[in-house]
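Reopening this one. Same input as before:
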Amino acid sequence: MSFPDLSARLGELAPDVRGRLSANAPLAPYTWFRVGGPAQMLFTPADEADLAYFLQRLPLDVPVTVIGLGSNMIVRDGGVPGVTIRLGGRAFGEVELLGDNRLRAGTATPDMKVARAAAEAGIDGLAFLRGIPGSIGGALRMNAGAHGGETTDVLVEARGVDRAGNVFTFTHADMGFSYRRSEAPPDVIFTSATFQGRAGEPAAILAEMERITAAREATQPIREKTGGSTFKNPKPQSAWKLVDAAGCRGLTMGDAQVSEMHCNFLINRGAATAADIEGLGEEVRRRVKATSGVELQWEIKRIGLP
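Same output, byte for byte:
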């Protein structure tokens, strides 16, 4: 499908925008599942000031959706109306060492890149980011965690732009972190974050990162078209155990499948649609509820029109 072209309207409203605007841009290539329809308008800002300028001039009737590396996301087959914003480039993808075991990272920076930069600088405490297949923006929004660490453990402050184009700094307390979520305003687009680690030995930290990598490769289908953990763990239980107990390991719908290796992962075997993947997830939720009484909650974000 395709949407009405917003190029002329947005060009008149924000004539001095420096980033890239693309009408009816395919989004599937930006997601790990490799499925989904187009963005009505895809905007890649040049930097934070360009993002603020654009948002200040964007009418409130135009919806805004933000995507990162697409590692924990399903874009539905009907595509995403309005403006989809994807941060990228050096302005949002660099890591800066600040001294005193602190660093600042742009929110388009892959988590693993931040982990490695910290390790090479002898900053301990951020190695867990090696096990999270996303970017810093997503880590802030969902308090991402793995291997005993969470974003809340190391965040000092975050910087972001709201829907009106105002720039704010959020302290750790402002973020209101809890398990796999934050209470930051939903309209804020994070642009950078500052993290605090502790002194460590680079060799020891890199060895820990290698251990995390080996553990992921041995237990998760990371070579597949997948979206990471599908459901939140309903603590103290593990989602995968509930899915397995409900008989869903290997379950298929269309060309989507519950991973045989780790049944809290859904995979695209090659020709799945977004509807296949989301429908399979809903069927898993139904079966788990029927067998255990537990209502699993999606951890994967789903956006767009069916």
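So the earlier flakiness isn't reproducible anymore. For the record, The longest strand covers residues 189-196.
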